[in-house]
Amino acid sequence: MAKQESMNSPDSARRLFVSDVSDQGTDVVLRGPSKRYVRDVLRMGRGDSLVLFDGSGMEYLSTIIEATTRNVTVRIQDKRPGTCESPLRVLIGIGLLKANKMDLVIQKASELGVQEIIPVAVRRAVPSLASDRAEQRRERWLKIAREASRQCGRTTVPEVRPVLPFEALLERGREADLSLLFTTAATRPLGALEQERAALPGQVMVLVGPEGGFTPEEEQAAQERGFLRVGLGPRILRAETAAITAMGLVQYTFGDLGGSHGDVLPTDP
Ligand code: SAM
Questions:
Q1: Three-state SS across the chain?
Q2: The pTM is what?
Q3: pLDDT in tens, 60-88
Q4: Which of 1, 78, 184, 193 falls between 20 and 30 A from 47, CA-CA?
């Protein structure tokens, strides 16, 4: 399991990702990095509470029953479905970016409740991933997605797909109820699109270009496959800014950020 990273708040500090919790019975034994994280980083011991999640959508309320130098044993007391998942399924296809920018987009996509992240090989993408490095980078992206999901309280972890050719990504777009091509050439904002639609989409595909943007041929191919062009205002945003803004706007307009379509939270005083 991935080495856990440092914590932000006491609440987030008590959550831990463990693969396939439900297959492990009532007592879950943590070893290696998970054991070290709980015992040495969080300094938790017998009697302390911990929330486990395995990406299935459930979370498991647990208590540590033993903590030794070899392992930490956790007893599951209860399980409940998570409450942080959006009713909207958002997928993002993003032209392959430089490593640190890609990391940022994956972290923010996880926080924004995206379910699937698909790096796309496009014409003007700066980096090209040699196949031996591709799997290594995907492992890193999966770790980032897992850690961001843990930190923000999600009970699922976005899928991070292997790099997909542009054509294959366009095919995937057919599965969505709404496929959006974010491009500097478009002036129509997402809000205008919302007003044109009679029903809320259940699944939205967001497509954002790399640092160099899409080629005219790529834009045309996307439109031919039913992608609608959407603009993000008059300024040219960096690809990572555009991706984060687009995901936030889609979640706000059709998902659970705006508060009007999902469970409405109690009004603040
Ligand atoms: N010169 C490139 C162009 O005009 O396409 C700039 C590309 S921009 C740095 C990277 C990506 O972010 C674009 O391909 C697009 O998907 C998105 N983007 C940036 N600013 C945008 C805007 N104002 N409206 C819509 N999409 C935008």
A1: CCCCCCCCCHHHHCEEECCCHHHHCCEEEECHHHHHHHHHHCCCCCCCEEEEECCCCEEEEEEEEEECCCCEEEEEEEEEECCCCCCCEEEEEEECCCHHHHHHHHHHHHHCCCCEEEEEECCCCCCCCCHHHHHHHHHHHHHHHHHHHHHHCCCCCCEECCCEEHHHHHHHHCCCCEEEEECCCCCCCHHHHHHHCCCCCCEEEEEECCCCCCCHHHHHHHHHCCCEEECCCCCCCCHHHHHHHHHHHHHHHHCCCCCCCCCCCCCCC
A2: 0.88
A3: 999 999 999 999 999 999 999 999 999 99
A4: 1
